[in-house]
HTH tetR-type domain-containing protein
Amino acid sequence: MNDPQSPPERGASSPAPGSRRPGGRTARTRAAVRDAVLTGLAEHGYPALTVEYVAEHSGVHKTTLYRRWGGVESMVADALALAGEDRWTAPDTGSLAGDLRALAREVADSFADPALAAAPTAFVAAAFQSPRAAESLHAFYAERFRRCACVVDRAVARGEAPAGTDAGAVVRAVSAPLFLRLFVTREPVDTRIADQAARTVLAAVEAGAFTSEDAGAPA
């Protein structure tokens, strides 16, 4: 368990909640708070998550939590921001079909294990109750979609997709039916369903469904 962060010197300016640059004890404190937030969300949900709970499970004094984050909403937002700072990269299988299938299967695999699925499921639920969490979840996936742009760029270069194909729309279309089943209809998602989503999007890409209306039009 990490030690509580030492208070700043008198007269030092206070940064915005959760905005300090990671490093040393600050990074360890931030990681400890993130882990406690994830555990609390998974066990109790956003409405029941408290500063006292995070303090007890992170080993960070609640005075420090209030000073750095201001409250639970900012802690949840920062936990999502920290998750988005990982080194995840989009798959590169050598074909658009393989890349889309890999992306869809990654979503399915992420929610196949209830223990692994608890935290992301709780984040989605929190986004419906907290504007800050919703903004952070949006930013998290916007970054994920940005990192996936190379999948479509490579496909266009290989002649597998028309020029002007909207990469973000393609990636959203792959994951959308899976998230619908996971969070709305509460149906199971497995490899077969993931592959089906990937095949559907591949056919749409090849048909030009994700190109803008003016793509390829003369200037």
The CA atoms of residues 158 and 185 lie 37 Å apart. The chain has two domains: 25-83, 96-206. Residues 96-206 form a domain with the Tetracycline Repressor; domain 2 fold (CATH 1.10.357.10). Confidence is low (pLDDT under 50) at residues 1-22, 214-219.
